[in-house]
Amino acid sequence: MIQGEEEVQGRQFHPETSSASASPFTEAWKTPLPRTSIIFYASRMYDKPNKKDIEESQLHRFREAIPDFPPGKIEEGEEPDFVIQTPTRRIGIELMRLYHEPPPEGQPRQQVESLRRQVCEKAQQLYEQSCGKAPHVFVRFSNSTPVTDRRVLELARIIESTVRSFALRPGQDRELEFDGTNRDLLPNEIIKIRASRPMHEFKCIWQPSDAASIPKCSRTLLENAISKKERRLPDYRKRADEIWLLLVVGSSISSSFQTPDPNEIGPFRTGFKRIYYFQETGPRTIQFLRTNT
Fold this sequence. Notes:
The chain is of the alpha/beta class and 293 residues long.
């Protein structure tokens, strides 16, 4: 048994300073995590990986972020997502991404981001069909006028037409921004279109840029997530002797939170052997306080 595992626990780890010989419950870094309330984010739109590719990447980064990741063969699955066969036991790891709680009114943040990505992807597709090699394009959308499903194609056509009118040569960049008087050039949903064509050819992307307030990660949000996965524990235990839950945040505004303090937010009464909060854009990892069910 790992020392302290049955006790109430709550420690933070940082991969740059932790070592393989360190105790898993030793605080491995002292600098407080940033608690910024505003984040700027531009979503990357390269070839889309599938769900399992994303999970494998998250598990790899998590393995690098904690000092006592168990050695052994890793098996893919669904319930749980991964099982590690160690010399003495089978450890299951279930991943779950956390998202902002839906607002009382309006679109959930996930939907906002999805629709904006759809607009940019469609606009790039239209441009490449008509003009070939595309430049880099960033689109700033309005927070007061949301994008809707029925407007995706129309907005994409406007962006494509605007970028095409720039007629960029290698090394050039141009932008069109709403200045309070030129609404005839930009629809209500769009604040700014910026395009640049690099000197050398390589894969360019069209993407939304965004800024928004980042909420605290509340105990209620965490309890709901843990409870949802807790109901699947009987199935997980069919494949593993103990189960860890990895709550993943980051990579988009809708999945970004102010870093919680595990000593303030815990403990959680749970059947999971360990519960981690994993900020994949750090990466930084927190092991939450827990007690046995």
